[in-house]
Amino acid sequence: MRFLITLGVAFLTSALAVAPAAAEFRAGFGTRVITPQGFETWTDVDGDAQYNPDVDTFEDANGNGLFDAAWMAGFQNGRATKDVHDDLMAVAAVFDDGDTRIGIVTADVVGLMANFVASVRTAVPPELELDYVLVHATHNHEGPDTQGLWGAADFESGVSEDYMARLKADMVGALEEASAALEPARLSMATIEGYDAALGTMDTRKPLILDPGVRVLMLKRADDSVIGTLVNYGMHVELAWDKNLSFTADLAGYLRRGLSTGLEYEGEIVRPGLGGTTMWLTGNVGGLMTVLPGEAVVDPWTQEEITASGHGKAQAFGYGVASAVLDTALKPGGFYEDPAPTLGVAARSVDVPLANYPLAAASLLGLLDRDFDIDLFPPRLTTQSEVALLKIGEARIATIPGELYPEIAVGGVENPPGADYEMDPVEVPPLRPAMGGRVNLMVNLANDAIGYIIPKSEWDNTAPWIYDYEEETYGEIVSVGPDGAAAVHGTLLPLLQSDGPVP
């Protein structure tokens, strides 16, 4: 191992390293199934998607008299899974230019905090010689609790330590497989505009701002066969919604299968895929980027407008993104091919002010695996996180340790009446225009999960509520606090600006 960054290391390189020569560029992909096992099923007698021992019943498979549940993340407490609709996956990609080697591994879970990320990096065998590892969660709300927020009831963690140990091993295993699979690769890329409306993507909190476009990196062999594809888009992975009791990778799983093997309906492939392995990387989703129940997603094949939450809506969305990539791949000049890709990485630690005292208390109680520091003069709490900028040829990947409000990325931060602070925006200029790549990916839930990253001038947890809302908005409840966004923005922006544009 040349050097493996941890959250305690301020940087890997002071600037993005560039290989001095046009050495052979290689890429490899690996996967592991990470679906929880050994959980007991149950009957939701009252149909509220929450296990209630006074009402609901369970199948005591091991005869111990206890409900050995797998608690699902997102939405509400007490959502125990009943079965598996489709497998959850860990997907890894490794890139090598002869001088630098970068690994990316993602998992179909809701979020992975800094301590777990550090443990994954530490567990990577030195012989893989990875200079940097990006650890990402798809933010799947239909998988297991991996943060400690969604147990049987309030103030009860839903995390299984046995599962977390297995998850770590599987993520490392996917990186090992990707490293072993390294082969000569051609890199191509595209930014695909105009699909947001058909997908039904919306911002559910004012100001209504999207970070539009699907961003794609594709790795091919000399014969044009696809090794793997990275797809980046800003959308919550949650379309099966809150009454779903089956583990599923949701729209990310459909995107991967649709792009790799093809669009499948009733057991028949109606549109072939590209082959290879597909990775979903969640874009800017603060705010909250989703498709609400009752809102439509247009199926790309049947043209049906699907409004009901569930697996059908997740399929339509995932297949919609896959179709956007397939359409572009068939278009002459749709993808730009990088003639001589090289790699580089720059990372920085971020001291994030922690003003959400219930979250701090949850850490002290052992519900959250989150460290924080206490300063007495002046008194404040901080927690350490990380941002990074990765160079993959003429593409750039900016990592965000939570859920970034899109206005911080593309502009439009406001100070509406009712906000807790009367002030000019501080998270300016926007981040995305500062990125210098030909194609620029922004990956949320990367290397940490600090919650919503909200502009301070839009912060609102005291009445009167902004934009004449009748109640408190959701974001502040699961955010580190009003100064978190400035800390992330203020640390990441110089990295982006120092990189400069692609020549």
Keywords:
503 residues; 5-stranded mixed sheet; 8 helices; 27 strands; 26% strand
Task: Give the topology, please.
Layout: E1 26-33, E2 42-43, E3 57-58, E4 83-84, E5 89-96, E6 101-107, H1 114-123, E7 132-137, H2 161-180, E8 183-184, E9 186-192, H3 196-199, E10 202-203, E11 214-220, E12 226-233, E13 246-247, H4 250-260, E14 262-265, E15 268-272, E16 277-282, E17 289-290, E18 297-298, E19 305-306, H5 311-330, E20 336-337, E21 343-353, H6 357-364, E22 373-376, E23 379-392, E24 395-399, E25 403-404, H7 406-410, E26 439-443, E27 452-453, H8 484-499
Report what the structure shows:
With 503 residues, the chain is of the alpha+beta class. The protein contains 8 helices and 27 strands. The strands form 9 sheets. Strands 7-6-5-1-8 form a 5-stranded mixed beta sheet, with helices on one face. A 5-stranded mixed beta sheet has the order 16-12-11-9-20, covered by helices on one side. Strands 21, 22, 23, 24 and 26 form a 5-stranded mixed beta sheet that branches. Helix 1 packs across helix 2 and helix 4 runs parallel beside helix 5.
How do the strands line up in the largest sheet? 7-6-5-1-8
Q: How does the major sheet shape up?
A: 5 strands, mixed
Assess the beta-strand content as a share of residues.
25-35%
Query: Low-confidence segments, ≥5 residues, pLDDT <50?
Result: 1-15, 17-21
Tally the helices: 8
Helicity, as a percent range: 10-25%
Q: Overall pLDDT, averaged?
A: 94
Q: From the alpha-carbon coordinates, what is the Rg to the nearest angstrom?
A: 22 Å
- The helix-and-strand class reads alpha+beta
| Global geometry | globular
